[in-house]
# Entry
Amino acid sequence: MLSPPPPSWRRATGLLPLLAALACTAASAQQPPGAERQRELIRMVRQDCGSCHGLQLTGGLGPALTREALADKPLESMASTIYGGRPGTPMAPWKAMLSEADALWIAQQLMAGFPEPQKDAR
# Structure
């Protein structure tokens, strides 16, 4: 005859639904931004980031953010810098204006060669 599982096992298995829900939440939090938000982010990078990193992102007060300049940089580190800034440097955190998913998307775009802003069709 099988004995019932120990209380610690029952507690652990009771956490499985919670852990599954947290995993789903974390995965959805990292969804790339939608098309409209992507356009906003492109404009923000070109204008706001460009004020320190150069309008063509080739450097200025801050370093160049070109694909070539970033080739050896870890993606997660770049996203973290965008989101949280760099203490002791002029690189301010952008977490008040960006989600972590936004910061990751920007880092991915910078690594790929940042897109040009789209012209308004007027």
